């Protein structure tokens, strides 16, 4: 309990200080804020290891695609991956809930680096303009898009169907998809206390080539990620 208390104090204070100090970066090149994102990712790793004695394993780092466009479809269990991915993926673009962009200072930084918001609980038809915005942003910036096809943070033991939007992006972008499985929710859950002396495993699976039929892609992506999550959980039990 004491470790959890100190983690929260140091981690969130650090994030707040960086956000405040970085306000001048809002009128500077995007690279500065992207670097700060990587710094905060490493800050999260440090706090987890120092205060909670968390061990972090990365499997399949050699599968990260280089020298060509790709997007990432990842399991989403914790706030952890939104920080961590910025340390292993170069200048990613996240799709996030619209409410985050309304947070003063924090939301300003997210807008500055082209993070894209979506109105949750809306239909695909209502989001057609959103898909166009994402595709245009990715084609112009050439930065990797990170999608959480579960739609929200989901415990590792729950297998919700993946949102069909990930298959739409796969079809429209016509680039490789890099699937990622993880178990971060076992250590840093959406609700409840954090676990000390835990193990977070991030498994980067083999890329899925462009050109598959979109429904087959969605089915295969979901099966592969959930199968890998089960494997990770069995290893850590």
Please tag this protein with its features:
Glycerol-3-phosphate (1)-acyltransferase, 7-stranded mixed beta sheet, alpha/beta, 237 residues, 7 strands
Could you explain how this protein is built, in words?
With 237 residues, the chain is of the alpha/beta class. The chain has a single domain, classed as 3-Layer(aba) Sandwich (Glycerol-3-phosphate (1)-acyltransferase). It contains seven helices and seven strands; from the N terminus they run H-H-E-E-H-E-H-E-H-E-H-E-E-H. The protein has helices at residues 2-21, 30-52, 80-88, 106-112, 128-141, 165-173, 214-236; strands at 55-59, 70-74, 93-97, 116-118, 145-147, 176-182, 199-204. The chain has a seven-stranded mixed β-sheet with strand order 1-7-6-2-5-3-4, with helices on both faces. Strand 3, helix 4 (106-112) and strand 4 (116-118) form a beta-alpha-beta unit. Helix 5 (128-141) crosses helix 6 (165-173) and helix 6 crosses helix 7. The protein is globular. The mean pLDDT is 89. One of its GO terms (molecular function) is 1-acylglycerol-3-phosphate O-acyltransferase activity. Residues 70-185 form the Phospholipid/glycerol acyltransferase domain. The chain crosses the membrane at residues 5-26, 32-52. One of its GO terms (biological process) is phosphatidic acid biosynthetic process. This is Phospholipid/glycerol acyltransferase domain-containing protein.
């Amino acid at each position: 309990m004491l470790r959890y208390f100190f983690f929260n104090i140091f981690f969130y204070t650090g994030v707040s200080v960086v956000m405040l100090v970085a306000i001048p970066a809002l009128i500077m090149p995007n690279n500065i804020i992207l670097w700060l994102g990587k710094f905060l990712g490493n800050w999260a790793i440090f706090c987890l290891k120092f205060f909670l004695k968390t061990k972090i394993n990365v499997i399949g780092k050699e599968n990260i695609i280089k020298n060509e466009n790709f997007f990432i479809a990842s399991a989403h269990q914790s706030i952890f991956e939104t920080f961590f991915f910025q340390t292993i993926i170069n200048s990613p673009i996240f799709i996030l809930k619209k409410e985050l962009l309304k947070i003063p200072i924090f939301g300003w930084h997210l807008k500055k680096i082209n993070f894209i918001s979506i109105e949750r609980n809306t239909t695909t038809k209502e989001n057609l303009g959103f898909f166009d915005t994402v595709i245009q942003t990715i084609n112009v910036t050439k930065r990797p898009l990170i999608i959480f096809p579960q739609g929200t943070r989901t415990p590792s033991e729950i297998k919700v169907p993946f949102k069909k939007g990930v298959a739409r992006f796969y079809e429209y972008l016509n680039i490789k998809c890099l699937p990622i499985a993880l178990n971060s929710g076992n250590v840093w859950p959406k609700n409840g206390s954090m676990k000390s002396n835990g193990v977070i495993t991030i498994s980067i699976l083999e890329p899925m080539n462009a050109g598959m039929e979109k429904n087959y892609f969605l089915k295969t992506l979901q099966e592969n990620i959930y199968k890998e999550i089960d494997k990770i959980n069995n290893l850590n039990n």
